[in-house]
Write a structure and sequence with these properties.
Blueprint lengths: L2 E7 H4 L3 H16 L8 E7 L5 E2 L2 E2 L4 E8 L8 H20 L7 E8 L5 E2 L2 E2 L2
Parallel strand pairs: 1-2, 5-6
Antiparallel strand pairs: 1-5, 3-4, 7-8
Length: about 130
């Protein structure tokens, strides 16, 4: 189950939530395949102005994407290609909706989650 949390400036997000959710979902599906559509969980977290910082000063062009993926995805022979494609697709989705000026400040972190640590409705995920 891909779980994506996006931390981004509230003023850039406001009014664009639906469009951004669609673009991020399509990015995930574009890499993983159609099976991932119904499993993709996206959480948009708008951060008020002056609460995102880089180098000790407030910025309004940084976006942090943190995506939990099954640890087994990193053991595949094509893991390097898949992870690079995923990072590029998610960054492209952000910039397509919110603007190209956000590309330099967009980071993607893929976090491995072992199957035995992933739960849905309180029970281990299949």
């Amino acid at each position: 189950m891909p779980h994506l949390t996006a931390h981004l400036p509230e003023d850039k997000l406001a009014g664009r939530e639906s469009e951004l959710i669609t673009a991020l979902t399509e990015a995930i599906v574009g890499v993983y395949g159609e099976w991932a559509r119904e499993l993709a969980s996206i959480h948009l977290s708008g951060v008020p102005a002056s609460r995102l910082a880089q180098g000790g000063r407030a910025v309004d062009t940084n976006i942090s994407l943190i995506m939990g993926v099954r640890a087994a995805a990193f053991d595949r022979p094509d893991a390097a290609e898949i992870t690079a494609n995923l990072a590029a697709a998610l960054t492209d989705a952000i910039t397509a909706v919110l603007g190209e000026d956000l590309r330099p400040g967009t980071t993607v972190e893929l976090v491995a989650s072992p199957q035995e640590r992933t739960f849905v409705v309180g029970v281990p995920a299949p």
